[in-house]
Amino acid sequence: MVYLTLQISQKFLASSRQVHKTAAHVVASSAPEETVTSSFASFIHAVRPEHLSKTVCHRSKRMILDSIGVGLVGSTTHVFDIALQYCQELYSSVAVSSVYGKPGVKLSPTLAAFTNGVATHSMDFDDTWHPATHPSGAVLPALLAASQMLPPSTKPNGMDFLLAFNVGLEVQGRLMHFSTEAHNIPKRFHPPSVVGTMGSAAATAKLLSLSTAQCAHALGIAASLAGAPLANAATQAKPLHIGNATRLGFEAALLAARGMEANPLILDDIPGCSGFSAFYSVYQPKPLSAPNDHHEFLLEKQDIAFKRFPAHLGMHWVVDAALSVRNLFINYAGSFSPSLIRTIVLKIPVSKYINRPFPSSEHQARHSFQFNACTALLDGEVGLSSFAESSIQRQELRELLDKVVVEHPEDNVANFDKMYGEVALLLHSGDVLTGKCDTFYGHWRKPLSKESLLKKFRSNASHVLPEEKIETIITTVDNLENLSDSSQLASSL
Fold first, then answer.
1. What is the side-by-side strand order in the sheet with 432-437?
2. What is the pTM of this model?
């Protein structure tokens, strides 16, 4: 019965894809007044590969490669194992979609998307955009799973895949630009659980070639599946936010393809009846212009931040500041001698969920200004092993944490485009050494080089894949737009 259902779904989606690709010949009997929601639906349906610039293609392929890499290394984590066992044991399904880091394992498409989404965010190693969200992890797993779900006769090619990925990014970015609240480090909910779900729905709707009306309904359905509280940051539940975003957005597109309808004004600001505006206290939506030769994707204007180590993005400022002052201290004292330090002053923005003086778990440590600054001071680096239990519980690290004092200068705002990190060492001698970071290496203002990005990918992927497979993935992503069958990328995982 399950296999028959999947076959029916494949046939339905295959015919749906073919019908909607030739729908340009069909003229609607009446053109309704354009709304914000209908403009987004029209954009998703009408945008074509030729609308992607070389810059957008280049940047988005970097994102795809990095996201796969962090997903692969994330497949070694305990939280990933929990999610995978849950999907394998609780659900009986026809397995057609690949799982990160598990060559012999396949799951049903939406559960593969969920599991791979969890892997992507399990170490908080995935990319970050501005306004603040993790755009790739919410979209890529759904597209990888969907590409393997479709029958051979209707497999999307690599350019279709790349376009759908960018549609998912564009929808996330446009939605976040509707609210000034979204520009700052979040306080109430985790952004990818909201805009990521919408982006996944848009991307999958595009890959499946849904009609304009179905695209609108997919967004409406996704809005009813979105949201996760920020209180679960720094816990094992946080990776579920990305897993659910990519899975539930995928499911929203599948439901819309099946004929399910939702509010066609979900993105509009309707007084007295909140749609997407329910997530933001300030919400000013604008229609999304129809795609044309002059359309500029947000990724063209706003590059992405790639993390050099697996922790919340805010940690990268304090780590670089700590490494800077550490070098000054070694030049001053000849070596790093914690006993010479009386006080460590961190100047950071106000953000409650990443201000954790004494973290007791790896997830808390990834969200602690204090832990990351002191680890950088003590070890001269922060990496995967920094978040092991043995590293977190070190006595010498605890002694450094005891010396930390936090200050919140008014000019240091909780915004990834404006914040800075400053670490000052007040020595027993009375001398003060200071390190400051305005822009860390990997930030969109100082992007990782191709060499650095490839080094990160190879390092992450090497935890679960042999060198030959790693190089195959790199080549496949680099030539993505030339693939005749985009499912080859998912199959290589």
1. 404-407, 341-347, 421-427, 432-437
2. 0.91
